[in-house]
Fold:
Amino acid sequence: MTLTPEALMAALGGTAAVGGLVLAVVGLVGTRGPARARPQGPIERRLRAAASQSDGTGPLSVWANQRALLPAAAVTGLLVWLFSSWPIGGLLSAAAVLGLPWIWQPGRGSKAQIQRLEALEEWVRRLSDIHTAGVSLEQAVTSSLRTAPKPLTGQLTRLASRLASGWRPQLAYRSFADELNDASADSVAALLIMHAQDRGAGLSSALKELAAQLAEEVLMRRKVEADREKPRTNMRWVSMFCLIVFALTVLSGSFVEPYNTLTGQVLAVALAVAFVGVIVWMRRMSLAKPAPRFLAPANTQPDSQEGAAR
Structure:
């Protein structure tokens, strides 16, 4: 395959087109639409919960934070294309650069979940201290924003805004649990919902007991996470070794001559897909299944129309 000015222009045009498409997707992900009262499907709820994680640890937030890798991926893909004359090789190289954070930090999601749970325990304990002073629960939530833990700043700010704008407290607390998307957060939201319904005494002591339970769960999850770190480290280094071998193979000359054909390019794609499939399989083996939630989503409640309209 001979490199011609026309081929170079085509490569630049294709790279620019792909980069523009990626930037457009990132721009759409970064927007926030108004609250909708219609019921949401399970996939939409998961996407919204991921996008609402303002601490930069959610899947969509992590992708948005990796925008600095886009130029490096484009340059790497173009260079591989020019040196190897493989269009597919250039695309695979660009994808490998974009996937480096995903490969290098296989346990990022679990660690972020533990950090949010630890922040939730800290917030519940502070909320108990504020509520002891005799203020209402809604006022205590607003007052807790001054010392809100960083991983929960966005979620708590939205919770206080919903309460201040006239949302039903039960609906606001359910929405808060939906954003955290964790069974432990459901326990906190359930306690707040029950208090919003009966306004009984003893909330402060109940919050303290719940905070102690959350602290024990954080400790347990950290122990489990430490046990899973070894297979993740093995997966990380095996993946990096495979990528290094791929990079050296591209520059080896006659050894990769069979991949210059159309059949060779298809085979390269198949090998790349198999590699990604093995990485995904190894990641799933090192991840613990989260406990199922017990609170129904906020948008499935009968009063969601009225609460969202207020």
About this structure: The chain has two domains: 5-109+226-285, 111-219+295-309. Residues 30-41, 50-57, 305-310 have pLDDT under 50 and may be disordered. The chain is about 75% helix and 0% strand.
